[in-house]
Amino acid sequence: MTVSRLIARPMLASIFVVGGVAALRNAPALASKAAPVTDKIVPAAKKAAPSLPLTEDPATLVRINAVAQIVAAGALATGRAPRLSAAILAASLVPTTVAGHRFWEVDDAQTKSQQQLHFFKNVSIVGGLVIAAGDTDGKPGVAWRARRAAKDARREAKHLAGSARREAKLAKAQLT
To answer: Which residues lie closer than 8 Å to 37 by C-beta, 6 or more apart?
Structure first.
């Protein structure tokens, strides 16, 4: 692991540990802010996966999200499954942001400005997490390996076709 990853991953994860602990402590208070989002997400999730046991209680969903953030942040910070943990954090931050920073519903200009700032800060964090989720730690990813294998196969096929043509020419010359 490079020094930049060694430093950057815990820095990126820190906001999720702090936010997750705060959400666990204040789940009942945050449930009212989360309700408009959970009221839309839960029915859609139950429709997509009917066998999934999913609660409709916003406070419980806030706690589940908080625990997911804390666990994934710990994994990201320590470099354990960093791509998966970054993807989980990105996925968990979307409903958190939509529930917590609904600037489009605020009338007060100063409050609206603050909510917009936090909303777009979270959007930028999601961007960083998307980059972290795609980071192969300097090793070739699956897509690169597939492209490389296809390129090698084409080159080998071209070589074999040339060899076959030469062999056919030699065989024809020996027959005549």
So the answer is: 95, 98, 99
